Amino acid sequence: MIKTLLSYLVRYPSAGLLFIQLLGILLYPFMEDTPLGRAAFGAFGVVVLVAALRIVNRSPTIHSVAFVLAAAILVLTVTAELVAVPELRLVLVVLEAGFYFYATAGLIGYMMEDERTTTDELFAVGATFTLLAWAFAYTYAACQLLAPGSFVAQLQPDEPRSWVELLFLSVTILSGVGLGDILPIRPVARALVMLEEIAGLMYVALVVSRVIGLTIRR
């Protein structure tokens, strides 16, 4: 059973990336409160990077850009664990946001480059959604570092929002179900939230509808 699942995920890289990121949603809550958990978070981030690089390598985007970003992220991830410098953390989350936005563009290009829909491209629809959600979550993290107090919640409103909370906010906005209990209160934070709302709407209207149309036509 496990061997069959692994071979399936290898055969369809988009399915593998989607599976890894959904697994991350379940694991992230256990990785935030302890040094060991934070180390596991960094290791899991490397796994996501490798899976995303496999996707970008199949897309029509410039591959060298993604590899340079991924290499810089790996170096800064290790350095940030050894040296507690706030500016280093800011650079890291900005690079991570840039990488995920670039991977999102690459995966969209992969789905849009021809007039047919494969099984892997159907999985790519979900993987692109998760990549975009991760990209905006890292963008919110950068915003919070630059402007503390950009996001508030009902519980512990004065504390900075954790990664799980920012990812929850991003997925909630991108899926169009609302803001939940985490609210942007600074102008820049609200502008970023509006951009994600527009991106989510355009993704469904332009990309998902095209893939569904090609599937039906086939």
Shape designation: globular
User: Gyration radius, to the nearest Å?
Assistant: 18 Å
Our estimate of the beta-strand percent is under 5%
Q: Alpha-carbon distance between the termini?
A: 31 Å
Task: Please identify the oligomeric state.
Answer: single chain
SS summary, helix count: 8
The mean pLDDT is: 83
Instruction: Tally the beta strands.
Output: 2
Structural classification? mainly alpha
How much helix, percentage-wise, in residues?
over 70%
In N-to-C order, the SSE pattern is HHHHHHEHEH
Trace the largest sheet across and list its strands: 1-2
- Main sheet record: 2 strands, antiparallel
Count structural domains. Answer: 1
Low confidence ranges: none
Structure explained in plain terms:
The chain is mainly alpha-helical and 218 residues long. The chain has one domain. 77% of the residues lie in helices and 3% in strands. The chain has 8 helices and 2 strands; from the N terminus they run ααααααβαβα. Strands 1-2 form a two-stranded antiparallel ribbon. α2 packs antiparallel against α3, α4 packs antiparallel against α5 and α5 packs antiparallel against α6. The protein is globular and about 55 Å long. The model has no long low-confidence stretch (mean pLDDT 83).
Summarize this structure briefly:
This protein is mainly alpha-helical. It is 77% helix and 3% strand.
